[in-house]
Each structure stands twice: as C-alpha cells, then as structure tokens.
Amino acid sequence: MRLEVLKTTPQSLRHIATMETTTTMAPFTKKEDKRVTEKNIDKQQARRSLLIFGQDRTGTTFLSAMFAQDPQMFIVYEPLWITKGWRSNEPNYNCSGCEIEIVNAILSCNFSRYPSSTKLLWYVKTAWTGALPVNIFTTNHFCNSSGQRKADCSKMRENPNFVDRVCKENFKHSVVKVSPERLPREKLADLVPQVILENPGTEVRVLHLVRDPRGNLNSRINIKWTKDYPHPMLASHARRLCKASLSDLDHVDKLKLTGRYKRVWYKQIADDPVETARDIYNFAGFQIPPDVEKWIIRSTTPNKTQQKQELNNPYSPVRRAKGNADKWRNQAFFKRNQVIERECRLVMDKLGLKRVRKPD
C-alpha cells in the first residue's frame, strides 16, 4: 500500500515516532526496503482488523450484526455515541482526539494506551445506542456472572490491561463501526489515514459503505428522520447528506489506499448478501464461518410473519433483501427524487448514478 498526499500533523505523528512499516505498504527506496524487511511485523501474525464507515442507512448496522454472529470478532458498534455524550455533557473534559484514540484502542486491543479509552470502559456496561447488535463488554469474557443475579464487570472497568489481554487472547479480529455524524467534523478525514498510521502492529482495513441518496432519503423518510416532499426539510437534509458524502469520496481519492480500502454499495448487500459478505470477509483477511452465512440467509429471507414483526424496528437486520435497494424508484416518488437529484447532483455524478426519467 502507498499512502500519498499525507500531511504531517501533530495528530498523525502522535504514535508513529517508532512506527515499523508493514509489508502492505509499497517500498520506497532500497535502503528503506531493507529496513522494512528487517523490522517488518509478520503479516501472518499481525492482528487483522476492520473499520466500517458509512452514513446512517447505508447497511452498516446489518454488517455489524453479521459480524456479531462470528465468535472470532471483537465487534464494537458506534462507540463514538459515548464520546459525543462526553462533548455535550462533560464540557470540562478534554476530548481532543478522543474519537481516533478509542477507534485505535478497539482495532488493536489496546485500551490501556490512552486515558480516553480507559475512560470508555466505565461507560459500556449499559447500551449506548438503541441499534446495538451486541455489547461485547458485558459478555462472560469480561464480566463474571457465575452465581450472581447481576454480572460483575468491575474488573473490566478498573483494569484496562485485563481488557487488552482478553481482547487479544479471545478474539482473532476487531471490527468497529463508525458513522461520520458522531465525529467532530463529520468527515472520514477524522479517521483515515490515521487509523492505519497509528496502528503499525495491526493490519487495518477500511470498509466504506455508500448508497444511492434517493434510496437513503427514502429510508430516512420511512422512519421519520426527515420530511417528505414538498416539505423544505427534504432539500436541506439531502444537501447536507450529499455534501458530506462527496467530501468523504474526494478524501479517499487523494489518499490512494490501495489494498486497504474497499467501497461497498448498499445495493450489493441487498441484491446478493451472501456473496457480498464473502467478498468483505476476503478483503478484511477474515475467514467466514458457515454459521454466519446461514444467519445472513435467515435474516434476508424472512417469512411474512417475521417480516411484519421486524418492520417496527428501524434498526433490525431482518429484512427481505430482494428489491429493497430500489424501492425509491416508485413513480409516486418522482417529485421527491427530483429534489434529491438537484441537491445531490455532484455526488451522483461522481458515483455514476443516472437521473430518473419522467413517468409517462
């Protein structure tokens, strides 16, 4: 891999003064290549971890729930809801850089590394978001529930070194899901390439989920996150979403994260969930268990009764996948889609998305 157009900032240099470059990075000179060979961390032994990044309603919750079925995975969903709470409710706490620090800690099983990641362990006993597919911190790996009505998680909170050890010894990989809306500037640039540079002992891959903005806004309207046409909120919401999405795509283009970055469409997940999951596992360097594939099939082909039960939960991973990505194409939504296309013209052009034709 080659990281190009990187700016040297205090944040990016914080933990790379003694960084050893892994063999996934392209060689620079013969002298540097020799040093890389001598100091290289064996890729077969290095921890392989995955950062899932995407706007809300792009399929990130489904993939997080999928990884939660895999006992190999130390999966943490949206931990930055907690840091967002710190920024809002603890004005005297210095949270500068705490988001990247917590993501680093999860990816490399190193919670003792920062004060912020140690602090996090005091906030994970209870669910921090309604969409949480699993709370890995309250499992028997970290909490003692033998002979007690209520699990004792005090050791986890008080001893971050214990958490580091359990994470490394019991989970082969780490997966963390982050939405840009929980970042200070709401941009991928708040995390990448820093998560790669600051975790030299971990093979970090970045999975970026994207969705046609017309489908994304259709989903948000259905769960009442925004108003439908002709309400002016639709245009402002579409403008904000697409401006943020375009910024992230432009940022990735500048970095050229060859081998470390993969973009996956929501439509790919909906149209062929099992094959897309295999592709994601392969990209991350993971092995997909048969039980995970079975879970995907069950979750994406529910019967009518199951589908009806799950429809009331906007975060449920259980949905009939076939045709789900194209529901926005209904002719009744033509005027709505015109508004979205006008506000999202630049990002749609970048993604190669075609405008809808006027209904007959």
Automatic annotation (TrEMBL):
GO terms for biological process: N-acetylglucosamine metabolic process; sulfur compound metabolic process. Residues 301-322 are annotated as: Disordered. Residues 301-315 have a biased composition (Polar residues). GO terms for molecular function: N-acetylglucosamine 6-O-sulfotransferase activity. Residues 49-351 form the Sulfotransferase domain. It comes from the Eukaryota. Coiled coil: none annotated. Pfam families: Sulfotransfer_1. This is Carbohydrate sulfotransferase 3. It comes from Acropora cervicornis (Staghorn coral).
